[in-house]
From TrEMBL:
Short name of any one Pfam family annotated for the protein: Phage_integrase
GO biological process, one term: DNA recombination
Record's keyword terms, sorted: DNA integration, DNA recombination
Organism name: Idiomarina loihiensis (strain ATCC BAA-735 / DSM 15497 / L2-TR)
Membrane-spanning residues: none
Domain Tyr recombinase: 2-182
Record InterPro entries: DNA_brk_join_enz, Integrase-like_cat_sf, Integrase_catalytic, Tyrosine_recombinase_XerCD
Molecular function via GO: DNA binding
Superkingdom, taxonomy of origin: Bacteria
Classification via PANTHER family: INTEGRASE_RECOMBINASE YOEC-RELATED (PTHR30349:SF82), PHAGE INTEGRASE-RELATED (PTHR30349)
Protein name: Integrase/recombinase, XerC/XerD family
């Protein structure tokens, strides 16, 4: 499996959202748009229940680390969540699977990671990027770093414990560091 990338161009971020909606529907585009704004691992993103959302905050115990993530929702995330909630008031999960809805005895389930991963990979091929479910998290980290140059903030947002891991994760290469030294003259 190829390592997925952060999407470094903001126009491409928007294009991916558009292509996901056009090809796979609004729900998968919503996964992308909300995922970009929450920087969660895909398993945590798909496991969000409406009960985890209190006003403008998401409270969630992360599956991988068992740490409590408390994330203030920005305007875009709140708008998407509010729309989904109004369109699907009976849903338990933010990204609930529509499969087996006719069966009353089947408990609700979120979208599968596999389905989301395949959709992202197909759109990634279309735009020429190794795109996957981690791309949302990596993209948010990359753009936060580029806007602030504060690796500590990115580490805290991604809940990483090492600068080296965070830099590698968001795709900051030695070439990027070299360019920063050349471009910033004091």
């Amino acid at each position: 499996m190829a390592e997925v990338q952060a999407v470094k161009n903001l126009d491409t971020v928007k294009l991916i959202s558009y292509l996901l909606k056009r090809t796979y529907g609004q729900q998968i585009a919503d996964v992308w748009d909300v995922g970009l704004n929450l920087a969660l691992r895909i398993s945590d993103l798909l496991s969000i229940k409406f009960e985890n959302i209190e006003h403008d905050r998401l409270l969630l115990v992360e599956g991988k680390t068992s740490k409590l993530a408390t994330i203030k929702l920005n305007e875009k995330a709140r708008a998407v969540i509010a729309r989904i909630r109004s369109e699907r008031p009976d849903h338990i999960y933010l990204f609930q699977s529509y499969r087996n809805q006719r069966s009353k005895n089947t408990p609700a389930k979120p979208l599968s990671r596999r389905y989301v991963s395949r959709a992202f990979a197909a759109i990634g091929e279309e735009v020429g990027i190794d795109l996957g479910t981690h791309s949302m998290r990596k993209t948010r980290g990359y753009h936060l770093y580029k806007n602030t140059n504060d690796i500590a903030r990115v580490m805290k947002m991604l809940r990483h414990s090492s600068e080296a891991v965070t830099l590698r994760y968001i795709g900051i290469t030695q070439e990027d560091v070299d360019r920063d030294f050349v471009e910033l003259e004091l």
